[in-house]
Write a structure and sequence with these properties.
By secondary structure, the protein is α/β, with parallel strands linked by helices. It has helices at about 75-85, 105-115, 135-145, 165-180, 190-200, 210-215, 215-235, 245-260, 270-275, 275-280, 305-315, 350-360, 365-380, and strands at about 1-10, 15-25, 25-30, 45, 50-55, 55-60, 65-70, 70, 90-100, 120-130, 150-155, 180-185, 240, 265, 320, 400-405, 410, 430, 430-440, 440-445, 450. The strands form 4 sheets. Strands 1, 2, 3, 4, 5, 16, 19, 20 and 21 form a 9-stranded mixed β-sheet that branches. It has an 8-stranded parallel β-sheet with strand order 6-9-10-11-12-13-14-15. Strands 7-8 form a two-stranded antiparallel ribbon. Helix 3 (about 135-145) packs parallel to helix 4 (about 165-180), helix 4 crosses helix 7 (about 215-235) and helix 7 (about 215-235) packs parallel to helix 8 (about 245-260). Bound molecules: zinc ion.
Length: about 475
């Protein structure tokens, strides 16, 4: 089966070109000058004239069906990966979880059991370590060597749940330095945050906005700084700060990078577009929709502006979603009258490609940088390149035909995520996902779904290509 995506502008991290993309089976086999294409007769032609042809999006941070705060994220691997496909994302990297006291490999097996046969697009795992001990350190080596899992997430927040102390963090970093893995860090000082939370609740400050007020930027910056220092002590262990939201934390990352350190970071669309006052501070319990950690930051400070700048300068390498949806009914409502009981998370896996394209329209990013931050760099950072993340011969035929002349209106009535609200209700994007191709198969065409559950394959990942 051959497919020709014809006449589009192919966008890659280093430039754009008008080219026809020839797909044979699951792979891209050639980029052709359009004048050559009449010589071939593909089985199917997709007209991409006037449109961009980009590599399928890679969302390097999702939490499908993740248990949290007495409930579970409302998207399953089935509903969540289908929604991702609608939004032009053809690969996710989700987080398998080792709970405190649990064997790492058992946690991984549980995630394979949840995902296998249910995904609409390709998927891979990072591993969350909730209990770093001697067995867990041995398991890190085994996962890197045998399981295609080359990145491990630790938490400086959530004492009693996922929290690692500095000694545990250092030991995991030393192990990662030796086996080539990346340490991913949730960088917030959770011990101090818990004190602020208890004090706020005791004062009767229970509305959702206090979720943000009790997680100040200074405590994100402090933890980021501490993680960078610990990684330095671990012989410059590669470190990746997840969901960075505060200018002060970005400064710490930029300083480390200026010194040539192996420090990387991502941000998420919610921190580029949404704020403490306008969303988290919405009247009544409405703000619960936007309770996530790290929290939304104040619009009176320069966070969003600085994050866009960080994306341009590469101090922020990637935009992921931290997709972790909870419905208002029965889930977010667990925190009625006490913000500390609101499940933390925002759903957005369907909208990342569009929301960051809006940054191109707004003059924040170049077209090339859009593709780099949503697809190419995630592939390189997490050992999926060049199988994924680039429109090039030999790569998987994961392609999105993106129409810059159409618009997308985001809302709960039209989205495909299993959520009873949208974090971006009414937002209009000057662009639209047209055709989505996953390993040579058209799975979305003009908003209609043609894929199927179970077609997505588990990807064993290699080491990051940013490191030697
Ligand atoms: Zn997360």
């Amino acid at each position: 089966m051959s497919l020709l995506v014809k006449g589009g502008t192919v966008v890659g991290p280093t430039g754009t070109q008008v080219a026809d993309v020839l797909v044979e089976g699951e792979k891209i086999v050639a980029l052709l000058d359009p004048s050559f294409s009449p010589a071939i007769s593909p089985d199917e032609v997709i007209d991409a004239a006037g449109k961009y042809v980009i590599p399928g999006g890679i969302d390097a941070h999702t939490h499908m069906e993740m248990p949290f705060g007495g409930t579970s994220a409302s998207d399953t691997f089935d509903t969540g990966t289908r929604a991702a496909a609608h939004g032009g994302t053809t690969t996710i990297i989700d987080f398998a979880i080792q709970r405190t006291g649990e064997v790492v490999q058992d946690g991984l097996a549980a995630w394979h059991a949840k995902s296998e046969g249910n995904c609409h697009i390709d998927y891979a795992f990072h591993m969350i370590l909730g209990g770093v001990d001697t067995d867990a350190l041995k398991a890190m080596d085994q996962l890197v060597a045998d399981e295609g899992i080359t990145s491990f997430k630790l938490f400086m927040a959530y004492p009693g749940v996922f929290y690692s102390d500095d000694g545990q963090i250092l030991r995991a970093m030393q192990t990662a330095r030796d086996n080539g893995a990346m340490i991913m860090m949730h960088a917030e000082n959770g011990i101090a945050i818990d004190v602020l939370v208890q004090q706020a609740v005791a004062r009767g400050e229970t509305d959702p906005i206090y979720h943000g007020i009790t997680r100040p930027a200074a405590l994100e910056a402090e933890a980021t700084n501490r993680a960078i220092a610990l990684a330095e002590v671990a012989r410059d262990c590669p470190l990746y700060i997840v969901h960075l939201s505060a200018s002060q934390a970005l400064e710490r990352v930029a300083e480390a990078r200026d010194k040539g350190r192996n420090v990387f970071a991502e941000t998420c669309p919610q921190y580029l577009y949404l704020t403490l006052e306008d969303q988290l501070g919405a009247p009544g319990f409405e703000g619960a929709k936007w309770v996530c950690s790290t929290p939304l930051r104040s619009k009176h400070e320069s966070h969003a502006k600085d994050l866009w700048k960080g994306l341009r300068s590469n101090d922020l390498a990637i935009v992921s979603t931290d997709h972790c949806p909870f419905c208002m009914k029965d889930q977010k409502e667990l925190g009625l009258g006490d913000f500390s009981k609101i499940p933390n998370g925002i759903g957005g896996v369907e909208h990342r490609v569009d929301l960051i394209y809006q940054g191109v329209v707004d003059g924040q990013l170049s077209l090339e940088r859009w593709v780099e931050t949503i697809a190419t760099t995630p592939a390189r950072m997490f050992g999926l390149y060049p199988q994924k993340g680039i429109v090039a011969p030999g790569s998987d035929a994961d392609l999105v035909v993106y129409d810059p002349n159409a618009t997308t209106r985001i809302g709960v009535e039209t989205h495909h995520m299993n959520m009873d609200y949208s974090a971006y209700e009414g937002v209009e994007i000057q662009g639209r996902v047209g055709t989505v191709i996953s390993r040579g198969e058209v799975i979305v065409a003009d908003g209609n779904y043609h894929g199927r559950k179970g077609r997505g394959k588990f990807l064993k990942r290699g080491l990051s290509s940013y490191l030697v």
